[in-house]
Amino acid sequence: MAAPVEDKTPVSGGDLQAAVQELDGWVISITKRFRFEKWSDITRFMQHLAETIAATNHHPDVILDTGSKSVIVIVTTHSERTVTRADLEFARRLNEFKPE
Known about the structure:
Layout: H1 13-21, E1 30-35, H2 39-56, E2 61-65, E3 70-75, H3 85-95
Antiparallel strand pairs: 1-3, 2-3
């Protein structure tokens, strides 16, 4: 039996937002995995994350993956069910973190 053919056509903009709105409970988000060499950098990053949350009043979903020494940050504006400028600003601020 042949494997099913996947439709890998990119979906973006209004088409993506409309499609997700039809999917009960799903939202559009952006995600980044921050990888670290040292535990002290994870601690410093978590402090940077907390400060960014306080400064922006924006609250991402966060997963601490101790096995790979990484922190996964998922950002979306839940009230809008999509990515907004606030999410992009939050991501920009997180990217300012520099490990020691």
